[in-house]
Specification:
Helices cover 56% and strands 20% of the residues. By secondary structure, it is of the alpha+beta class. Strand 1 and strand 2 (32-37) form a beta hairpin.
Length: 59
């Protein structure tokens, strides 16, 4: 596992532990996992939207 993937995995786990995101694991081959904002995470939606808008303008 590369350092980049390891860091992303740690970030996802941290956000899951903090209740910001939730994870859905599907019993498939190959395995599939989906992440989505929890109710708490959705309270961040206005901030995420403004950051996305800023990012689009910055490009």
């Amino acid at each position: 596992m590369s350092q980049k993937v390891l860091t992303q995995t740690q970030n996802l786990r941290s956000m899951e532990e903090d209740g910001i995101i939730e994870r859905q694991v599907y019993a498939e081959v190959p395995p599939r996992v989906e992440y989505f904002l929890s109710d708490l995470g959705n309270t961040l939606r206005p901030i995420i939207d403004v950051m996305a808008e800023w990012g689009s303008g910055y490009q």
